[in-house]
From TrEMBL:
It comes from Knoellia subterranea KCTC 19937. This is MmcQ/YjbR family DNA-binding protein. The lineage of its organism: Bacteria, Bacillati, Actinomycetota, Actinomycetes, Micrococcales.
Length: 100
C-alpha cells in the first residue's frame, strides 16, 4: 500500500483530513490522529488496545508494536502488508476518533 492509497482511503472517510508535511504526513478527524507516516515503509494507526490486539493476532505479517509504542494506543503497519487489513485499521481508528 502506498501513502497515496492511504490518502485516498483516509480522506474518503467523513471528516478525515490530511495534515503535516512531506516526510511526516498524517490524517486526522476532529484534530485527533487517525494515521500518520512513521519509519520508512510504515505508518502508525491510532487504535484502541482491544482492536490493536485483534489486528496483531489476525495479521502478524502486517502489524507490530515497537517497544516505544507499547503503552500507546497505536499499532505500526507495514505498507508491504495486507492492504485490506491496513484499511480496516484506519477505519477502526477513524471510528474511535470520530466518536471521541
Amino acid at each position: 500500500m502506498t501513502l497515496d492509497e492511504i490518502d485516498a482511503y483516509a480522506t474518503s472517510l467523513e471528516g478525515c483530513k490530511r495534515k503535516g508535511h512531506p516526510g511526516r504526513v498524517a490524517w486526522y478527524v476532529h484534530d485527533r490522529l487517525v494515521v500518520r507516516q512513521d519509519e520508512p515503509g510504515t505508518v502508525l494507526v491510532r487504535v484502541g488496545f482491544d482492536d490493536r490486539e485483534s489486528l496483531l493476532a489476525a495479521y502478524p505479517e502486517t502489524f507490530g508494536v515497537p517497544p516505544r509504542w507499547e503503552a500507546h494506543l497505536k499499532v505500526q503497519a507495514d505498507l508491504d502488508g495486507d492492504p485490506d487489513a491496513i484499511r480496516e485499521a484506519i477505519r477502526l481508528a477513524w471510528a474511535m476518533q470520530r466518536s471521541s
